[in-house]
Amino acid sequence: MSYYGVVAKVKPNSVADDIGLKPGDKILAVNDMPLTDIIDFSFATADEEIELLIETADGEQELIEFDKEYGEDMGILFESAVFDRISRCKNRCTFCFIEQMAPNMRKSLYVKDDDYRLSFMNGNFITLTNMTEEDYARIYRLHLSPLYISVHTTNGQLRSEMLRNPDAVHIKKQLKELAEHQIDIHVQIVLCPDYNDKEELEKTLTDLYELRDNILSVAIVPVGLTKHRERCHPLRTFTAEEAKAVVKTITAWQAKAHSELGESFVHISDEFYLMADEPFPTAEIYDGY
After folding, report:
1. Crossing angle of helices 198-209 and 240-261, rounded to 10°
2. How far apart are CA 81 and CA 74, in angstroms?
3. For residues 134, 149, 143 and 21, what is the CA-based torsion angle, rounded to 10 degrees?
4. Could you list the pLDDT tens digit for every one of the 289 residues in the chain?
5. d(CA 222, CA 196)
6. pTM (two decimals)
7. Model confidence over 49-108: pLDDT tens digits?
8. Rg over CA atoms, the chain
9. In the 8-state DSSP scheme, what is residue 135?
10. Closest CA relative to residue 53, chosen from 29, 25, 24
């Protein structure tokens, strides 16, 4: 199956503008290379000599040959960063926010993407539960780094239960393999009381800290609950005392990281300080924001 990128906008005075590309044109191939996403397009158009196969709005195909500077940006904005199908989430997380969204909002808010390409390009968090060997091979070959990964816990069995997906159990092995291939990682943890907090949180941070050469940051947010939870797993929010305990735990980890790394390594969201009625940290704790 062939895929194509649809031009949404052409930057004035750019290469794309000079060769006459218009919004609505379809980019079918570059130098005979098929395209599945912007990553393919960027690598293919880095060369100096380009053959661009396009299909115009009237359905006519045209091969455009031109020269450009090596690495020069084409000046194209696409309708979507992914030309084939976005990889969707296969999990049924107990804390999934999309499952408790209000009805009748714009459709894009209900898309549960779990696509490593959007992680690399846009900073979307992924779980790695739908990854194939081909996906990993491409990440390593093109060095798609950093990636943004929702870890939640390094306890594989607990993670499998929280994500309600048996494929979630391999997270420690996956993180280690990514680090061995020098792929940097930003980690997210959705913290749920009575699940991945307390001792489990300590264990998770200990495991992540062992990979600190490639884990650039750890962000922790409290589980978000809305009133639209009729069919959702029963969860509760943190009490003030529990929030204080989380703040205390993270403050200790930040002190350790600052003494050894010169940075905080792990951060919690403002909600924890507000729930605990604790003051926000000083600016240097935020590692330059």
Report:
1. 20
2. 15
3. 90
4. 679 999 999 999 999 999 999 999 999 999 999 899 999 999 999 989 999 999 998 899 999 999 999 989 999 999 999 999 899 999 999 998 888 888 889 988 888 899 999 999 999 999 999 999 999 999 999 999 999 999 999 999 999 999 999 999 999 999 999 999 999 999 999 999 999 999 999 999 999 999 999 999 999 999 998 888 887 788 999 999 999 999 999 999 999 999 999 999 999 999 999 999 999 999 989 988 7
5. 11
6. 0.91
7. 999 999 998 899 999 999 999 989 999 999 999 999 899 999 999 998 888 888 889 988
8. 22
9. H
10. 29
Identify whether the C-beta of residue 222 lies closer than 8 Å to the C-beta of residue 272.
Answer: yes
The token duo for 156 is 């594989």
Nearest-5° angle of CA 132, CA 35, CA 30? 145
Q: From residue 28, give the alpha-carbon distance in Å to each of 34, 56, 155, 207, 234.
A: 7, 10, 44, 44, 48
Environment class of 122 (CB within 10 Å of its CB; exposed 0-12, middle 13-18, buried 19+): exposed
Q: Where are the alpha helices (DSSP H) in 143-287?
A: 156-163, 171-180, 198-209, 240-261, 270-276
CA dihedral 263, 269, 271, 274 (to 10 degrees): 10
Query: For residue 57, what are its two tokens?
Result: 């709005």
Residue type, 113: D
Helix and strand numbers, DSSP H then E, in the chain = 9, 10
Secondary structure of residue 277 in the 3-state scheme: coil
Query: What six digits make up the tokens of 184?
Result: 């940097």
- 140 Cβ contact partners less than 8 Å away, ≥ 6 residues apart: 181, 183
